Amino acid sequence: MSSDHLTRRGLLQGSAVLAAAAPTLSANATTPRTIGANAMMPVELTVNGREVHLQLDPRTSLLDALREHLHLTGTKKGCDHGQCGACTVIVEGRRINSCLTLAVMHDSEAVTTIEGLGTPDKLHPMQKAFIVHDGYQCGYCTPGQICSAVSVLEEIKAGIPSHVTDDLDEVAISEAELRERMSGNICRCAAYPNIVAAMRDVAGEAKA
Amino acid sequence: MRPFTYERATSVAAAAKAAASVQGARFIAGGTNLLDLMKLQIETPTHLVDVNHLGLDRIEKTDDGGLRIGALVRNTDLAADKAVRRDYAVLSRALLAGASGQLRNKATTGGNLLQRTRCPYFYDTRMPCNKRQPGSGCGAMQGMSRSLAILGVSDACIAQHPSDMAVAMRLLDAQVDTMGADGVARSIPIADFHLLPGDTPHRETALKAGEIITSVTLPKPIGGTHVYRKVRDRASYAFALVSVAAVFGKDGSARFAFGGIGAKPWRTPEADAAAKQGAKAVAEAALTGARTTHHNDFKTLLVERTLTSIYRQRETRA
């Protein structure tokens, strides 16, 4: 997408600037300040290779820190209860639900979001494969799906077994393995077969 | 979410002390259950003590050939651990049958034991619930009770214990190692760790205020064939309707523990004693005293059929 298009992300960034300019508005839309609310806490994160310093209400989830404070809106809020996987990011090399963890718990840790995996000019192989294999329709769950998919292939490589692994000591890629391991990422459009195809492609098991 | 203060504990003793000295304080480890409940204001801690940096993330052999699992070992790491895969496969299988990959990467061994029920009436703050609000009544008994417990229940509560891991821990006779706010360590047999609801369903474990789980210790391996069979509404990422953990010896003896049906991870010596008589006898023994509702009475048959399936698979693989 060319930069002169009006994008959702651009719009959000614009409104964040407006909000910051109006001192009566809360800068944190999802955890409003209340009487007796806690002091803000300093949180330092390395997000997509960039060191950031934030002052956060301890209630701020990692997801809200990414979206509302760092304006990295690629990571999506679906259920906000760890059931849908739209908020999946990679923290210290492992995929987690960013909605079910507090940003303060990750002080001085490294976070990779969909924005850090690749860029529009230089896509991550998994991003490319999702396009080639049509691994999405509406796209809302896609950033979480892709972060999960990248991690799943690494988990298999590391020999981590799953519920469908027959012999716990012999972990290998299969359709059943990928489906089981991706069960924490729900897709309302049911792009599942194409997501599996994209993952097999990246894993070197090209499948039309 | 209600406001709270937050601190990162630097030692086990300091964590226990902090949790005991601040009223309404809670430990936070993986946070996957606690934060979910905090968002719904079912849990409303005033202070969180973060125990993620206490070095409780090691798995090591004990002097008598068992295994000591640090309370902060993540579910993924415990399931993938070589010694666990080899000697306690039922534990690997139970862990892998639970939650999703993302959740297992965060959820901890200690936290999993403290996981709270998934009873829909516990989750719905508009409904009465003796566990959430003591004395308010139970919405489940006359309500949608399909997923709920049939063993160990009381007139006050029929909530099921949701954990898969704890069922395997119960089967393996694990010990829960803790440290109290007074700095005193103790070990609680897992059979005594979870409490039955009785008149006080809000009291769920034997832990005292400020007492922190430091590790879970497994006795030395018992060998045998390890099985964890979970029956649920979808193929993955769902809580158990019924689950069976079993270890079979070469002579046909076996031990069993059950998930999805008990107010706590369920095990009875009578079920183990019936192993050689087959699935039906084991089910009958395990289900002694079962109290069902109109919605969950299918679970008794499902227990028997799950056991039958396990026995048949053993025959075909033998």
Largest sheet of chain A: 5 strands, mixed
Q: Strand arrangement, largest sheet of chain A?
A: 2-1-5-3-4
> How large is the count of helical segments of chain B?
13
Mean pLDDT of chain A: 87
Order of helices and strands of chain A: HEEHEEEHHHHH
For the record, give the distance between the C-alpha atoms at the N and C termini of chain A, rounded to a whole number.
27 Å
Indicate the radius of gyration of chain A in whole angstroms: 18 Å
The proportion of residues in beta strands of chain A is 5-15%
What structural class do you assign from the helix and strand content of chain A?
alpha+beta
Low-confidence stretches of chain A: 1-6, 8-37
**Span from first to last CA of chain B?**
54 Å
The counted number of beta strands of chain B is 11
Summing up helix and strand content along with how strands pair, one would put the structural category of chain B as: alpha+beta
Spatial arrangement of strands, main beta sheet of chain B: 4-5-8-6-7
Quick recap:
Chain A is α+β, with helices and mostly antiparallel strands and 208 residues long. Chain A contains 7 helices and 5 strands.
Task: List descriptors.
heterodimer; A: alpha+beta; 7 helices; 5 strands; 33% helix; globular; B: 318 residues; alpha+beta; 5-stranded antiparallel sheet; 3-stranded parallel sheet; 11 strands
Describe what you observe in this structure:
In chain A, 33% of the residues lie in helices and 12% in strands. Chain A has helices at residues 8-21, 62-69, 114-117, 125-132, 142-157, 175-181, 192-202; strands spanning 41-47, 50-56, 88-91, 94-97, 109-112. In chain A, strands 2-1-5-3-4 form a five-stranded mixed beta sheet, sandwiched between helices. Chain A starts with 7 loop residues before the first helix and ends in a 6-residue tail after the last helix. The relative contact order of chain A is 0.12. Residues 1-6 and 8-37 of chain A have low confidence and may be disordered. By secondary structure, chain B is of the alpha+beta class. Chain B has 13 helices and eleven strands. Chain B has a five-stranded antiparallel beta sheet with strand order 4-5-8-6-7. In chain B, strands 1-3-2 form a three-stranded parallel beta sheet, with helices on one face. In chain B, helix 2 (34-39) links the parallel strand 2 and strand 3 (47-50). In chain B, helix 5 (89-96) packs antiparallel against helix 9. The mean pLDDT of chain B is 97. The interface between A and B is large, with 45 and 35 residues.
